[in-house]
Amino acid sequence: IMSSPLTFQPVLDRIAAEIGQTPDRGHPADYIPALAACDPHRFGMAVAELDGTVYGVGDWRQPFSTQSLTKVFTLALDLAREADELWEHVGREPSGNPFNSLVQLEYENGIPRNPFINAGALVVTDRLHSQTGDAAGTLLDFLRAESGNDGLAINEDVAASESAHGDRNAALGHFMASYGNIRNPVPVLLDEYFRQCSVEASCADLALATGFLARHGIRADGSRLLTMSQAKQVNAVMLTCGTYDAAGEFAYRVGLPGKSGVGGGVIAVVPGRCTLCVWSPGLDEHGNSVAGVTALDRFTTITGLSVF
Ligand code: GLN
User: Fold this and answer.
1) Which ipTM value was assigned to this complex?
2) Which positions in this protein are listed as binding substrate (predicted)?
3) Measured distance CA(222)–CA(211) in Å, rounded
4) pTM of this structure
5) CA-to-CA distance for 39 and 264, rounded, in angstroms?
6) pLDDT tens, 213-234?
7) pLDDT band at 66 (very low <50, low <70, confident <90, very high)
8) Residue 290: inside a domain, yes or no?
9) CATH number at residue 97
10) Which of 74, 100, 279, 284 to mutate to test the pocket of ligand 1 (most atoms within 8 A of CB)?
11) Does 244 appear as a known binding residue?
12) How many domains does the chain have?
């Protein structure tokens, strides 16, 4: 198992070289034009240490569409405010279904299986919006502070496109509202959710912003966002639910808490040690970055750094 942090750069260089030899990259998400236009051969990877030192390779400073990666941050931001009350409105079991599935909601009284499928993320964003009056703005402020990058922004064109193609998320929102599990007007919630999905950030930004989960709840400025046990909870839900109906395979291959987004990003946490973010826009059939998961698999295999 690696002990010297100085050895991260050669590890990243080696992984990027290996990925460069891999022809099969999957296909970019095609439900909105902005994502469909991404080149699946783009690849970036960053590792951030607990003190904010960052190593990177390839397109690691290129901003991309964060999409469902933001579900980790909204969960943490709401948990910090509501604590266990949140878990009365969203579960924490893997769903075994695709990220945008509706099927389990009817049997479970409008309570989504977990906060990382779309239904669960909508509940979390709804609650964060009630707590703060500005869910997407609260998220953006947090990401800027943790990454040290004030330039982070929402791509409003992507948000408009999400909205124009948002029938399924609208259906999820209205269906859960019929069970009383949504507090804001559904159109208000959807607007916040689509703007949240449309935040753009780089691997470097996101590896840094995820740092609080490796520091057991402590933010970049040394203040506490989550209790130690809440940070453990978020990491555990990432491990079991962060890559949807492929979470078992991700845990088997990578062995770390991780979260994917359809923009091709994947974040991962080595508690007590470092955080990672990989970006490559080509996805597999579950919506997870093909090269991203492979790169994380290689990282934990080469370094021995996993939670197991
Ligand atoms: N905007 C996407 C959606 O809501 C996010 C999904 C994802 O990244 N898995 O469908």
Assistant:
1) 0.95
2) 68, 118, 162, 169, 193, 244, 262
3) 11
4) 0.97
5) 11
6) 999 999 999 999 999 999 999 9
7) very high
8) yes
9) 3.40.710.10
10) 100
11) yes
12) 1
